[in-house]
Structure formats: C-alpha cells, structure tokens
Fold this protein.
Amino acid sequence: MSKLYVIGIGPGAYEDMTVRAIQTLKKCELIVGYKVYNALVRPYFPDKEYYETPMTGEVQRCRYALERAKTGIPTALICSGDPGIYGLAGLALELRGEQTTPEIEVIPGLTAATTGAALLGSPLTNDFAVISLSDLLTPWATIEKRLAAAAQGDLCVVLYNPGSKKRKGHLSRACQIMLKHKKPETLCAVVRNISREGQSHKLTSLGELRDMEVDMFTTVFIGNAQTKLINGQMVTERGYRDV
C-alpha cells in the first residue's frame, strides 16, 4: 500500500515531538522537508534518505513526496509545528486531488501558539486568534481585516511570521490596527526560537511592541482585556473563580 505521512515535528526540539510523530518517522524510508526542518530531525534519524528544497519550494516538495510515496516507499513530508496550521497538509491533499493513491495520513504536532504560550505562562486560556502577517500568499488587505476583527472582538492574538528582511514594517502596521481597539498598555510578549538554540522571550506592552524588531523565528502574543502579569508570567483569566 502506498502511503504519505504528513508529519508535524513541533517547534524543533526532539522532546517536543509527539510519540506518534517519532514512531512514524522511524518506519519511513524517505523524509522530505524544508532544509531547516530536515536539519532538525536528521541527528535523530540519520539512516533515512532525505530530500529538501529551500523556502518557496513547497509545491516541489509535495509533488516529490507524493510521487515517491506512490511507488510504495514509506514517505514522510515534514512540517514545523502542526502540518495543518500554515503547513503542507492542505497542499498535499490538493495536489493529490481526487486520486486514491497514495493514501495520506496527517500526523499532528505542537504549534508555536501552544509551545510559546507555555513559556510565557497561560496567555491563551480564553478565546484567541492565530494570524500570519506574511502577505506572500494572503493579500495584506485581507490580513488587515482579520486583525481588526480580532481586536474588535477583544481576542487574544498570536501573530505568526511577524517580520522578515523584506517585511520590516508589518508588525508595526498590525499594532496600529490593534491600537484602535486595544489599550496601549495591553500585555504582550515576543518569543523567539521556541525549543531551539537561542530560545528567548520578553514581555512588553502593545504600545512598545509597535517599535520592536522581529523576524520569521519570532512568535508574537497580544493579550486581551483580561490578560495580566502574575508573578512574572502572562495570564489571561477565563473567569473560573467567578462561577
């Protein structure tokens, strides 16, 4: 039976991969991924065949993984975090279309919203939105509408892809939109290199966040009206004590 496994490897550390992901990678012969992701798993699975492309090679990776899996080779298509959250699970299913081979199984993984939140305390205890600031695939006008809607609803917000060499002003623009509906003192945080070398996090306010420098390895957390600092940790109240 031909089968392709689309696997979420989590934020980077082996300890943050699920047991299911590890067991699946062990039985695969070929691992297909972005070069950075392959480098994260190669030390733990050195005997596998690897295929990689640089950034923006997503379609090429998916097509290659589908073709190799179709020949009967147990194949893993790996993604950081969860493969269904800004990952390649959807693309793999789209490219296979209505064909029945290879069979595709999606293996979930820990995404940056949850792993980053754990470092900060508990900022996502109540409703929240996850929004990517990358306009490579989504028009900026659409991103602005989503930011405004989340802010108007007083949701906690997690921002993925907040900046890069080509997109230095996107976080500042996002904060300006948020500040129309949230107070400047709203508690926020930035987390960088989650579960990887150089991991760091910093608490800040929405007003200060506007001027911070971030990159593609940064995840941004913006609190709501119930988010507060408790003993140095970011906590969003849900109201359990009021019931």
Remarks:
- Helices lie at 19-27, 35-41, 58-70, 89-96, 112-120, 140-152, 170-178, 206-209.
- The chain has a mean pLDDT of 95.
- Residues 3 and 103 are 5 Å apart (CA to CA).
